[in-house]
Amino acid sequence: MNTKTIKELVEETLFIHQKVDTVPNEFTLIGQGRSAAVFRMEGSPDYAVKVFYPEFKQLAHQEAAVYERLSHNKYYPELVEVGEGYLVLEYLNGMTFYECLVAGIPITPLMVAMVDDALGYARSQGLNPSDIHLKNIMLTNNNQIKVIDVVRFTQDKDCPHWSDLKKAYFTYYQKKYFPKRFAPIFLELIIRLYRKRLLPI
Ligand SMILES: Nc1ncnc2c1ncn2[C@@H]1O[C@H](COP(=O)(O)OP(=O)(O)OP(=O)(O)O)[C@@H](O)[C@H]1O
Ligand SMILES: [Mg+2]
Known about the structure:
The protein is of the alpha+beta class. It has two domains: 6-90, 2-Layer Sandwich (Phosphorylase Kinase, domain 1), CATH 3.30.200; 94-195, Transferase(Phosphotransferase), domain 1 (Orthogonal Bundle). The protein has six helices and ten strands. The protein has helices at residues 6-12, 59-69, 97-103, 109-124, 161-173, 184-195; strands at residues 14-16, 19-22, 27-32, 36-41, 44-52, 79-83, 86-90, 94-96, 137-140, 145-147. The strands form three sheets. A five-stranded antiparallel sheet has the order 3-4-5-7-6, sandwiched between helices. A three-stranded antiparallel sheet has the order 8-9-10. A hairpin with a 2-residue loop joins strand 6 and strand 7. The longest helix has 16 residues, at 109-124. The radius of gyration is 17 Å and the shape is globular. The chain binds adenosine-5'-triphosphate and magnesium ion (MG). InterPro entries: Kinase-like_dom_sf, Meiotic_Drive_Suppr_Kinase, Protein_kinase_ATP_BS. This is Serine/threonine protein kinase. ATP binds at residue 50. Keywords: ATP-binding, Kinase, Nucleotide-binding, Serine/threonine-protein kinase, Transferase.
């Protein structure tokens, strides 16, 4: 059997307008963001392959450099390999905070404290944690917190996303009668309003 390399599989992965168009049989889509799609790979269950959309290809080496600075820390996935327009990361078995809210899995103060700890570690490494939103934080199946998507950690500008999320968490989510489960369409609306600065946070 002629096994393809990760590089070959990435080259076979095609996008049209940031939507996945062609995927090799060996890849299964597990997540998507504004700059990349993430796949699991047949025969390598421990890997997640992040393939950047063509216009964001240059981010692969940038993000790899940040992951290298965060390596061997329990809050961040390990970087396995970097190539032209892609990263191979440790696969995280779990859910994003966004998926937790959809499934009604409670987000606890301890989980929030672990995110703070993770971001504190990044700061101690000279980084500036940015773009910390619901889809970039994961709760693994063994109750660990992992922060993913670290490419913007090298920016100079301070990002208010995490402090705003925390404010919303303690002001609303923690209230006894506040719902703990949300429809994706509702969360998407909230995210959109937040990005347009239309929320009183
Ligand atoms: N190592 C991983 N293990 C498991 N799932 C992952 C992993 N990395 C990413 N994912 C999934 O893929 C999704 C997209 O990944 P990522 O956040 O890195 O993409 P992005 O395009 O950089 O996102 P953004 O829109 O925040 O810029 C994540 O929200 C998560 O669901
Ligand atoms: Mg993301």
